[in-house]
Amino acid sequence: MKTKFYKHGTHKYKAYYKSVGHGYEVGFCYGKKTLFVGNFLHAKEANGWFKTMTSEIEKFSKKYWISPKAPKAFYNKFMTNHLYKTYYAQLDKWFDRYNRSYTSSFKKDERKYKQLKKNWKTTEKTFFKKAA
Question: Which of 4, 13, 82, 98 is most exposed, with the fewest beta carbons within 10 Å of its own?
Fold first, then answer.
């Protein structure tokens, strides 16, 4: 488990990364209240997001500083929305990359299938059948 602690005036925050079941969880908490949670299947992606998230937290607090008299609930919600926006933008990048990779792999396999199919007889067709 990795943790990073942040202090904003008298308020304490914690960013964490831990394994959960067969996956990984990356989150951000204010006291005992969870502000953000992201779940991942692969450690590489979870580590990448944890690194991105911690840098985003620091950038956010420098760009959107707040007075000690300002409502903490508003600032927490504002930061939560920023983290989720960044999280989904990161996932979109990863999904686009996976989509390109699997699309090209499928096309390659499809070409190979068509090449193999030329030598097969049409009477030898078999299909998937529902098993009991």
Answer: 98
Structural domain contains residue 122: no
**Whole-number Cα distances in Å, 90 to 40, 43, 52, 107, 122:** 12, 15, 9, 26, 47
Q: Which residue has the tokens 């927490």?
A: 76
- Say if residues 25 and 39 touch (Cβ distance below 8 Å): yes
Number of domains in the chain: 1
6 pairs with which residues across the strands?
13
Burial of 91 (0-12, 13-18, 19+ CB in 10 A): middle
Find the domain containing 72 and state its range: 2-117
What is the C-alpha to C-alpha distance for residues 81 and 114, in angstroms, rounded to an integer?
A: 48
Does 7 fall in a domain? yes
**Residue 123 is assigned to a structural domain of this protein:** no
17 in helix, strand or coil? strand
**Block residue for tokens 């959107």:** 64
> Interior CA angle at 92 toward 73 and 100, to 5°?
170
What is the per-residue pLDDT across 21-80, written as a single tens digit (0 to 9) for each? 999 999 999 989 999 999 999 999 999 999 999 999 999 988 988 777 778 888 899 999
